[in-house]
């Protein structure tokens, strides 16, 4: 378990703590302390959280892409490796570095979504344009947000009447057919294998965050209350034959 501090700004404070608290709990974290103040640019909410290390990044992305969040910052310690030199044992330990997680360009993604819906499934030109339009540090979070919103929209349009499914059945009956409209994809257990991904050209940057968000958006409402997580474990942009996505709860 590790602590992390997040700071969000929203247009209004009514119900903000309750809504974001649900997200925090969904990702296995607990709230240790909070501070909510009204500033000139909106309601500023600071949360001190504790939870599993392997869910911190997913929680940051979920909070940063939440529709009520205008800006998002995350502060968490970066572990400093132990030095092997015996002489270093007498040196004082360095002060932990704190890093800021970039947030999605929410406004630009929101403006793009109606066009993606109109042109669906021919969405990759819009996504490639998004990659170039946003700041480099906001690229991955913006792709994830676009994927999450698109996946949720596709689920509501095509699969909302489906019964609650196990994760395996949801991958086979929802994620697989939805992705096959966009790309060449197969599945093996809880993995999806995407061939020749248009967003992951060899030597370029990975576009896997879009597919992680798309898969999570597709499956979030189909498998019950537990959160769904998609993680890219292999990418065509880095020389792999396939882009591989592991899906878990």
From TrEMBL:
Please give the superkingdom of this protein's source: Bacteria
SMART domains reported in the protein's UniProt record: V4R
> Taxonomically, what lineage is the organism?
Bacteria, Pseudomonadati, Pseudomonadota, Gammaproteobacteria, Lysobacterales
List the SUPFAM superfamilies hit by this protein, alphabetically.
Ligand-binding domain in the NO signalling and Golgi transport
Q: Which residues form the 4-vinyl reductase 4VR domain?
A: 191-249
Specify the protein name. 4-vinyl reductase 4VR domain-containing protein
Against Gene3D superfamilies, the record matches this protein to:
Trafficking protein particle complex subunit 3
What range does the record give for the signal peptide? none
């Amino acid at each position: 378990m590790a602590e992390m501090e997040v700071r969000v700004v929203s247009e209004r404070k009514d119900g903000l703590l309750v809504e974001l608290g649900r997200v925090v709990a969904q990702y296995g974290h607990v709230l240790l302390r909070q501070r909510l103040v009204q500033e000139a640019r909106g309601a500023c909410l600071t949360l001190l959280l504790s939870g599993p290390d392997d869910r911190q990044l997913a929680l940051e992305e979920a909070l940063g892409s939440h529709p009520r969040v205008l800006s998002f910052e995350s502060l968490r310690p970066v572990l400093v490796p132990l030095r092997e030199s015996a002489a270093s044992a007498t040196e004082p330990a360095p002060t932990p570095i704190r890093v800021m997680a970039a947030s999605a360009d929410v406004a630009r993604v929101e403006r793009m979504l109606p066009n993606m819906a109109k042109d669906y499934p021919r969405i990759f030109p819009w996504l490639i344009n998004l990659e170039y339009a946003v700041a480099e540090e906001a690229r991955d979070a913006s792709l994830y947000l676009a994927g999450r919103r698109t996946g949720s929209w596709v689920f509501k349009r095509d699969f909302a009447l489906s019964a609650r499914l196990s994760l395996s059945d949801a991958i086979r009956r929802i994620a697989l057919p939805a992705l096959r409209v966009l790309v060449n994809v197969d599945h093996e257990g809880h993995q999806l294998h995407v061939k020749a991904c248009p967003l992951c050209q060899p030597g370029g940057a990975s576009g896997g965050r879009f597919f992680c968000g798309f898969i999570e958006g597709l499956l979030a409402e189909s498998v019950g209350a537990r959160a769904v997580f998609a993680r890219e474990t292999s990418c065509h942009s880095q020389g792999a034959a396939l882009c591989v996505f592991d899906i878990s709860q």
